[in-house]
Structure formats: C-alpha cells, structure tokens
Design goal:
By secondary structure, the protein is of the alpha/beta class. Helices cover 37% and strands 21% of the residues. Helix 1 crosses helix 9.
Length: 274
Amino acid sequence: MTRCAVLGSPIAHSLSPAMHRAAYAELGLDWRYDAFEVLEDELPAFVASLGDDVRGLSLTMPLKRIALELVDTVDPVAELIGAANTMLFETDGSRSAHNTDVPGLINAFAEQGITAAETAVVVGGGATAASTLAALRGMKVNEVTVVVREISKAERLLDLAAELGLRTSVADFSQVEQIGGFDLCVSTLPGGAVDPWAEHFASVAPVVFDVAYHPWPTKLAIAAHRIGTELLNGLDLLVHQATLQVEMMTGRSPAPLAAMRSAAREELGDREPA
C-alpha cells in the first residue's frame, strides 16, 4: 500500500489526514495517510527510516526549513521562501521539496474571483507572512505594508520583499491607526493575536484574509462581516494547499476540492465543544 503522512509538532490538531483521506476515497485510491509527531532534530532520522512505500509527506512547523536540507531538489518557490511544506519521494530514490502554501493562497483568492491587486497590508512577520508576500507578488501586487510587533525583527521579511521586487514599508502596532486604504488585508497571526486591532484591520481593505480558522469566527472575522468586508479564512488556504499536495503525490488532477473542504469542515465540527 502506498503511504503518505503529515509531520510536525504539535500535530494532533492537523486537518491534513481528514482532507487527504477524503481525496483518496474520492479518487478511488487504496492509499494510507497518517500523522506523526516529529520535532526538528528528529526529522533526518525519520525520513531516513522510511520505506519505498512512502510517496509523500506534508510538513508543518517546525519542519519547513530543515526539510530543505534533506532533499536532492528544491522547487523555486520553496527555495525563495526558505520553507517547504511538501516532500516527495521518487521511484529512483531521490527526494524533492516543494511549497504549496504560496500557490494555495493565490488559488484561494482566485476562487473568490480575486486574481490581481495593487496594494496590500500584511499583519505578522513569520513564515506565513513570507509565503503571503510571494503570493501577493504572484497576484501583481507591487506595494505592501507589513505590520509587526518589533520592526527590528522584520529584516528577513524585508530582504525577501526586496528580492520579490515589492515596495515595502514596515509599521508596528503602535502605528496601526495611521494605516489604511489597501486593496487587500492579510492577517497571518494566530487566532486571537490580532483581536485588539480587529475593528481597524477589518476596515483597511475591501477584502480581508484571516489565516486563522479555529476557533472561528475570530474578532477580525466578526468585525469584517458586520461592515460588509469580503472575508476569506485559513481553511480556504489549508484546502487549496492540500489539493496541490494531493495532485503532486498522486499524479491525479484535479484533486477533489469540494470533498476535501467538506471533510475539513466536518473534522472541525467534531472538535467544537458540545
């Protein structure tokens, strides 16, 4: 039996097993998909221990950077971002690393009819923010404001923005009230972290993408809904990046987006408190 899995720490919350298993069922594949708790220093030994029945791995934090050191080839997006969320195992024994977060975010926007914009504000300065910058550049955005807790820690993100050809300015949260008038707003902070500024960020652009998805709705989502701002959430990104993984791992396209989204929502529903 062909096997795939998702690795990371923590991993119990992952929706990947539900989505990938739903895809296999829809595609008529007798494949197996598991979840394993793996820390960064454990990944090399884990990968080396895998048999030739393994086709692919989905990678979450904290494994996205070290994965690049364990493969023979790295796709251009993963190399640019410095992070991979997918590892493929070829029949010749070689391994490759890929990033489906960037095209997944582009596809999530495109599903809502949003394929291009000029300006955006990105809230947060971590790995998801880096993927967001690359995705926005792919949507022809040329001017971005990044809002972070500490401007001094945004150097890596600014270097990436420069490499992407983005005109970028940085603000901290003490300056939030002074920024606005964007085409898109993307909050890359975990659920709750943006709550103190939710009302403001809900109104800085006609479209808001909140990468949080559980618990839902967030204060940002509630504020956006109340004033009529178009809203996307992290589940949209999660499903779209997973469909690309399924297509890469199985060689079948298109992946069953609707079935995978339904499985993810059902899994989340099962986790809601009674």
